[in-house]
Amino acid sequence: MNGTSDTPLDLGDLERADALVLFGISGDLARKMLLPALYRLTESGKLTVPVIGVAATDWDDDALRRHAREAVTDAGTDIDEAVFSRLAAKLSLVAGDFTDDATFARLRDAVAHLGFLTHYLAIPPSLFTTVAAALARAGLNRDARLVVEKPFGHDPASARELQKALSASFDERHLLRVDHFLGSEAVEGLMVARFANTLLAPIWHRSYVDNVQISLTEDFDVADRGSFYDTVGCVRDVVQNHLLQVLAYLAMDPPSVTNARAQALEKWRVLHATRTIDPADTVRGQYEGYRDVAGVAPDSTTETYFATRLYVDNWRWSGVPFHLRSGKALAVSATEVVVELRKPPLELFGDVETETPPNLIRFRIDGDTGIRADLTLRKPDRGTAPVPVPIGVDFARVLGRQELPYENILEGAVEGDPAYFAFYPTVLECWRVVEPVLDPGGTPLPYARGSWGPEAADRLPGLRAWHQPGRRLFGDDG
Where, residue-wise, is CATH 3.40.50.720 in the chain? Predict the structure, then answer.
């Protein structure tokens, strides 16, 4: 199948790379995420290939290594000098402009002896096609694959155009698309929890599930990213990719075998069955003060908050509402899934004033990751109503340190594991789902910083109440 098809992909085994070429190694993403992840991979013995950085800078190799040390330290890591020495020995730099073919000639000389290459583009999306074409002109698209960061397009049409342009230089088997949520251990753990436990698998169905809530809330604002964020907004930034990928893991049917192709097909099927968003079922918000941020238009209508109701029209989920929301400058930072189970058919233990609360299953998939079930139990005080009691697992405490998403992504990029990357047909389905609300016009509703967003979101069609996440999954406010 060719790279521009809209049908599910025929994925085969991918080659292991002999070197990682990291475009944009001097940039913000590399500093905050990629270089700390490379350190962790070195620490665990998983990074065994050289890393050649490419950047428009006047640095030399030593300057890059100093920058890498600062990045790892800024990430809160106590550096082990022996580990960092191993990482530093793998780092080198090719400096030059991405629009200058001479840069790619120098890169070709630097990697001539290295074998199969993974080219990782941690650069603005506007440069994806420029760099891909330059790699092809230099012959660096042979024995190589290309990895591109999100966003993959800004709507369905541009995603198709980007696919067509990149496919001129790299075929589909050698093109990987990053969505860092797919590298999250906790997100992948959704599938394991669902399909490896007969305690959960039989009830993951419309007969037992009343509704599902998926929240990605942040207590910080756009900070110094105003000019970027104002052209993107909440829907493009996190709903089209992160939240819909979580929905796919949460709602997909079990794959027939444990490989990336089977998983990709099931994700595609469930997204294909997901209705496009109805604008009438949405609430858009903008936190107070957003328009005063440098780089934001004084009359900006960009949403910093978005909430909606979705339906998956298949046998498993027909009629079950999925409520999604995300926003900045909210009460807490948390990424959490809440599955609310149907209540028993008779109210035996509540009363007119106090209903028995429903059972909830919570998955925290960022920060203090874990799984928690809120069960209804009787208090020992006679005459008091039953209360919800949390039971569950704190992943870090029980299972040890969770690998950072970019550790898995970079390892997958080198090893040729497509499981951590978004596949083109699912990307198109995600764009289809959100297309009606990409550029809706109108002014978003204002909301106070530190709140839960616009009050109108509490009256989203079909919503009884949001199950608010606490600052921690287990604790007094959880």
Answer: 19-178
Mean pLDDT of the region 324-349? 90
- Cβ contacts of residue 442 below 8 Å, gap of 6+? 284, 301
Of residues 67, 119, 174, 242, which has the active-site annotation?
A: 242
Is 182-403+436-459 a domain of CATH 3.90.550.10? Answer: no
Determine phi and psi for 166, rounding to 5 degrees: -70, -35
Phi, psi for residue 371 in degrees, rounded to 5? -130, 140
pLDDT tens digits for range 255-300: 888 788 888 899 999 999 999 999 999 999 999 999 999 999 999 9
> Do 453 and 286 meet the contact criterion of CB atoms below 8 Å apart?
no
For residue 220, say whether it is annotated as part of any ligand binding site: no
Catalytic annotation on 119? no
State the pTM of this model.
Answer: 0.91
Is residue 267 part of an annotated ligand binding site? no
Residues of the chain within CATH 3.30.360.10 domain(s) are 182-403+436-459
- The answer on whether 180 is annotated among ligand-binding residues is yes
Is residue 328 a known part of a binding site?
yes
CATH superfamily of 19-178: NAD(P)-binding Rossmann-like Domain (3.40.50.720)
Ligand-binding site membership of 421 (annotated): no
Average pLDDT for 144-164: 95
Q: Which H/E stretch holds residue 364?
A: strand 360-364
pLDDT in tens, 366-416: 878 889 998 888 777 766 677 788 888 888 788 767 677 899 999 999 999
